[in-house]
Amino acid sequence: MLESQRGELDSIKASTGAALCSLKDDLEGLKASNGSNSELQSMLESQRGELDSIKASTGAAPCSLKDDLEGLKASKGSNSELQSMLESQRGELDSIKASTGAALCSLKDDLEGLKASNGSNADLQCILESQRAELDSIKASARREDSALRSSGCASHHEGPQLQEQVAALATRLDSLVAAAAGIGIKHNVLPELAELALGLQQDEEAEAGAHTRILAVIDDLCCRLAEVESSGEVAGSRGGSCGFSETILPEFTHKFESLAARVQEMQQVGHLMEVKLADFVHSATVIP
């Protein structure tokens, strides 16, 4: 743009110089020809008009040049602002690249950890299979005890501690399983097996609750019979006769009653222990990542 303005100024200077030279030549011609003053006056007026137009055009050119220079100065300021914006954008891009690289490195580490934990899932699968087999055996023994209780109306006093020991052993195994699962991480394909194990424990708890109900019904029936026997004995004693039953019957019923009461208490303790262990196991299975 500056070069074009300089070219225009040079052309204006050249035209101005040519006009002045032409004016000088005309004046010399007029002097030589001794023309009239009126012709000279008209020629002077014409030359003066041309000079005014040349001056006007010459004055307008510097003004335009000044405007162009001001525009260039303003554009230099905007260029500096654009440069600063580009620098800021470059800094943001560098930070984004750095954070993206860090995220990729973290993702690679997570993938390596997942690959390493795939081997430990097989061990956990074996543990779950053994726990399922043991749970099935406990279910079978509970069903056998339930059948024996239905047929006889009472159970042995020594079966309660044995069942309690089995439940305690199962609870210990469950605690070790939860600890192992929390240490190595449980995948989505193992969680359904844990849910099945928890469901089995809940079913055992429901079976124990049913057994409690049946035992309580037997105890109620036994209490009613004892009340009838005591009532008939009191009636016979008031009449001065024999009580009408052997002295060994009442101790036998008393022994059965005490045995059933102890059985109910033991089964209640076992049921409470199973409820606590089941709640702990479900909570641990839900909080494992």
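The above is record 1. Record 2 follows with the same two-line structure.
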Amino acid sequence: MPLVQPMLVRVFFWSVYLIVLIGVLNAVSWVDPPDRWKMLAFFGSILIFVAWAALRGKNRG
């Protein structure tokens, strides 16, 4: 039974992560092209860091 809870937490985390990613892409779509790439780079770097930290924490535990 203890394996069920981390799996649910992982599924919840990645589903929220994908929802945030889709929301960022929708929000950025109306921005003018020069600023759009800056916003995509900014939010993309944050999302990549969050995913990297989550995977790093999973491998450590």
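The helical segments are 4-28, 33-60.
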